[in-house]
Write a structure and sequence with these properties.
By secondary structure, the protein is an alpha+beta fold. It is built from nine helices and 13 strands. It has a nine-stranded mixed sheet with strand order 6-5-7-8-13-9-10-11-12. The chain has a two-stranded antiparallel sheet with strand order 1-2. It has a two-stranded antiparallel sheet with strand order 3-4.
């Protein structure tokens, strides 16, 4: 007989040279590998901690419900030890979930939806208590992280959220824009936009937030060139030259719904051009004086 101890589970295998015990040996091996898989890939620790906090229970309070020491529960949550089968059943019954879900599901994702579209990438979406999508805000500070983590529900969870009353159904996100390429929409404005699932849904000459690894996050007026599989991105400020972006380079695209501006000045494109020309004139004058 061969004995193998793994964590707090002990497996005893029959002699493999005995043909009469081959069936029992096979059964033992199946059980062993199932339990081994659960131990290696279990979500029990993070799930217990998540469920406990979701139900507003301290470690001490939940340990008393389970009739175990608080230190033992702490070991479960840190995955230093694993609860036995009766304890798993007791935990699952208290939270009214299946043991399988407790062990292998990432329950922290239950407040998130994953939207998939045929053209674009997977989109992580957070939802409120009514299962309605939140509006997450991606400000300038969060932009770099968003480009790397927009598919990660854990990252989306940490973004600031707000609500807009009477907004049409859909998936919305808010983005802070920088620069003067889309005047009169000013730098620092917040663009509230709805998610576009297919590039073919783009409406020519409408404005969109376009996310790509090449250009990052940009707010542009978009033209669809289906024959060339490209988008043409234009600025409302004629000082900026239009450019193209391959369909394959687009990670996300969001159609303008509304925007928030925090500057009540009457800044116009003409004024911006005058400022830039004045600045250029000043620099040329300085250079001229230095040359003389």
């Amino acid at each position: 007989m061969i004995a193998l101890e793994l964590s707090h589970y002990t497996f005893k295998f029959l002699n493999p040279t005995n043909k009469s015990t081959n069936s029992a040996l096979s059964s033992d091996f199946i059980v062993f590998f199932v339990v081994l898989w659960l131990i290696l890939y279990t979500m029990i620790g993070s799930n217990l901690k998540y469920l406990r906090k979701k139900h507003n229970l301290s470690q001490q309070a939940f340990a008393e419900i389970l009739d175990i020491p608080r230190t033992t529960l702490g070991d479960y949550e840190r995955e230093k030890t694993e609860p036995n089968i009766p304890m798993l059943l007791k935990m699952a019954a208290y939270f009214t979930i299946n043991v399988d879900n407790l062990l292998i599901e990432n329950l922290q994702l239950e407040n998130y939806k994953i939207a998939e579209s045929p053209d674009l990438k997977v989109l992580a979406i957070s939802v409120d208590n009514n299962n309605e999508g939140n509006i997450e805000l991606v400000d300038t500070k969060a932009e770099a992280g968003y480009l790397d983590s927009y598919q990660n529900p854990e990252y989306i969870k940490e973004l600031p959220k707000f609500a807009v009353p009477n907004i049409p159904s859909g998936t919305y996100r808010a983005f802070e824009i920088q620069g003067d390429s889309m005047l009169p929409v000013q730098s620092g404005s917040i663009i509230i936009a709805s998610y576009i699932e297919q590039l073919q849904d783009i409406k020519n000459n409408k404005t969109y937030i376009v996310i790509s690894k090449r250009d990052g996050l940009v707010y542009k007026r978009v033209l669809l060139n289906s024959e060339a599989n490209k988008l043409v991105l234009k600025s409302d400020n004629d000082l900026f030259v239009p450019y193209e972006l391959e369909f394959s380079e687009v990670d996300e695209i969001w159609q303008y719904y509304a925007h928030l501006t925090f500057d009540d000045s009457e800044k116009t494109i003409s004024e911006t051009i005058e400022v830039k020309l004045g600045d250029m004139h000043s620099k040329i004058s300085d250079l001229h004086e230095k040359l003389l």
